[in-house]
C-alpha cells in the first residue's frame, strides 16, 4: 500500500530538483550585485575603465561565493550520490541546508560592502558553519535511518564526516585570522576554496582536505 | 493514438518540474528582502553589529516563510506521490496552487514590515487558506477522476484530506489570536510551522497534525 | 556513430527542462511588481487596508498573466507531448518562444501601469501574437521534419494548428476592442483566458476553443 | 563499492539540471533591464509610443544576448551529448562555464548602456572569450580522461574543438572592428550570432561555422 511521504526514490529525485534550482538561482543572484555604472558619471573610455576597475572587490567576492557554492554543491552531491532513498525528515534537513545556501548571497554582499569589518567576516563564517552543520546532521540521520545505499562501506561513511569536519576546521582558522585583520581571513578562506575547487593531485593537500 | 494533453505520466513529470522551480525561486526570493545595511551609516564594528541585529524581524519572517514553504512543498509532494498520472485540469489546479506560493514572498514582506497590524496577519493567513483550498480541491479532483494510483487505499485518501483540514484549523486559530494582538498570531503560527517541519514522534502531537 | 546535436530524445528532455525553468521564473517575477506599501505612509489598520486595496489592478494583471502563462505552458506541452525527438532548429524555435515568454512580465507591467492606453494593450497583444507565431512555426517544422511521434494521426496534427489559430483570432478580436476602450480589450482577453484555463465541458465553448 | 563523487551517470544528470537552471534564469534576467516607463512622464498615447520606441537599444541587446545564450546552450549541449559520464573536475569546469553565463546579463547591460564605448564592447567580448575557453578546456579534459562516450569517433572530437575556435575567431574579428567604431563591432557580432542561431543550409556558411 502506498502511504503519503514514506521513504522513496521519488522523494530523493525531488530533493535533487529543488537543490539544483536553489543553487542555480544563488549562482545567478550573487552576480546581480555587480551593477553597471550610472551613465551620468561616465564621460570617456577612461571613466568607464576606471568604473569597471572599481568593481574589482565585487568580482573578488563573486569569485569567493561562486567557489563556496561549488564546494557545497559537491558536498550535497557527495552525500546524495550515496543515499538510496529519502524520507520527510531527510528532506527537511536538506531544505534547512538550502535555506543557508539561499542566505549566502546576503552574507557575500555584506562581506563585499564591509571587507574591513570583523563582523562581516564572522557572519560569512557563521553561514559556512551552519552549512557544515546541516550537512553533518543530514548524513548522520541518513546513516542511522538506513537510507544510505547498501554498497557503501564503513570507510566511505567515515570519509563523508571527515571531509565536513576538516573543511570546517580550515574555515574556523580562517575566521580566527580576523583577530589580526579581516582581509587576512578573506584571503585565507579564498585560498582554501580555490584548493577545494581545484582538488589538486598533491599528496599532502589530499591528506588535509580528505 | 496520441492526443494532445490527455492524462499522462509525462504530464505528471512536468508538474513536478515547474513546482520545484517555483519553490526554489520562492525560497530564494524571500531572502532578497534581507538587505545589507547602507555603507554610509556604518562607522564601527558596533554600528554594523547593531544594524545586523536590527534585521532580526526579517530573519524571523524568513524562518516563518521558509517553514511554510517546506510544509506546502511536502503537502504537494504527499499528494503527487499518490497520483499516477495528471490531466490538464489537475495541472491547472496545481498551477493555481503555485500562483499562491508565488504570492508568499509578498505576504511575508507585508508581515515583516507591519508586524503590529492585524491586516498584515490576515493577508498572510488568507494566503495560507488559499494554499489549503487549492490543495484540497486538487486532491478531490484527482480522486474523483481516477488519477490516484490504484494501490492507494481509502484510509490514505481520507488522511490527505484530514491533514489539510487540521492544518487550516490550527492556522485559523492562529489568525483569530490577532484579535488579542498580532504578535500572538505570528508566534502561534510559527510554533505550528515548527511542529509540522520537525514532525516529532510524540503521540498527542501526531494525533493533532495527523 | 554519435554526432553533436543530432535529433535526439535527450535534446527533447533538455527543452522541457529549460522551458519549465523559464515558466517557473516568469510566474514568480510577475509577482515582484506587487510591492509592499512603504511603512512611512501607513499609520493605521485603515491606511494599510486602503493601500492593499489600491494594489487591486496589480492583482488583476497578475491573474491575467498567470492565466496567459498557464495557457502557453499547456500549448507548449501539447506540442511536445506529441513530439518524439528534437533537433537543433526545433530547439531554437522553442527558445524563441521562451524569449517571448520572458518578455511577458514586461508587457504585463506595462499593461498594469497604463491600463487606459491603447499602446499598452497593443504591446500585450503583440506579445501574445509572437507566442502564437513561434508555436505555429515550431509545430510546422516538427511535422515537416518527421520529429512528430509516429502514432499521431492527421486529425490530431490539424487540431494543434486549429487551436493556435482560434486562440489568436479571439485575442485579435480582444485587441480590436481597444478601438472602443482599452478596458474592454483587457476584460475580453481576461474572459478568454479564464475560459481556456477552466476548459469547461460546454459544447459550444468546446467548438470555439477547439 | 560506491565512493563519493566518482565519475558517474548521475553526476552528468546533475550538471544538466544546474545548467538548464542557470540558462533559464539568465534568459529571464536580461529582460528585467527593459523597464516600463515611469507613469508620471506619460500623458498621451504618443508619449507612451515614444517611450517604448526609446527602449529599442534595450530590445536590440536583449536579442543579442538571447542569441548568445542560445549558442552557448547548444555549445554545452553538443559536448554533453557526447559525454557518457562526469567526474568532479569536469563538473567544476562546467560550473566555471556557468559562472561566465551568469555574468552575461552584466556584460549585456553594460553594452546596452554604453554602446558608444569601446570598453563596453571589449568587456562583452572578454565574456564570450572566457565562455569559449571554459568550453574548450572542458572538452579537452573530458577527452583526455576517457569521459567521452565510446561511439564518438576522432573526427567528431575534432569538430567540437574546431567549432569553438572558429566562433572565437569570428568574435575576435568583431571585437577588433571597435577600432573603427564600437557600433560596427556590435553589428558584426549580431550578424554572427544570427547565422549561428539560424544555421542556414548554405555551403560556404556551413564551411565557416563548421
TrEMBL record, chains A, B, C, D:
Where in the cell does this protein reside?
A: Membrane
What does the record give as the reaction this protein catalyses?
K(+)(in) = K(+)(out)
Q: Which GO terms describe its molecular function?
A: potassium channel activity; proton channel activity
Q: Where does the chain cross the membrane?
A: 15-36, 48-74, 95-115, 121-139, 169-196
Q: Which UniProt keywords apply?
A: Ion channel, Ion transport, Membrane, Potassium, Potassium channel, Potassium transport, Transmembrane, Transmembrane helix, Transport
Please give the GO cellular component terms listed in this UniProt entry. Answer: membrane
Quote the InterPro entries the UniProt record gives: TMEM175-like
Could you say which protein family the record assigns here? Answer: Belongs to the TMEM175 family.
Q: What is this protein called?
A: Putative integral membrane protein
The organism is Mesorhizobium australicum (strain HAMBI 3006 / LMG 24608 / WSM2073)
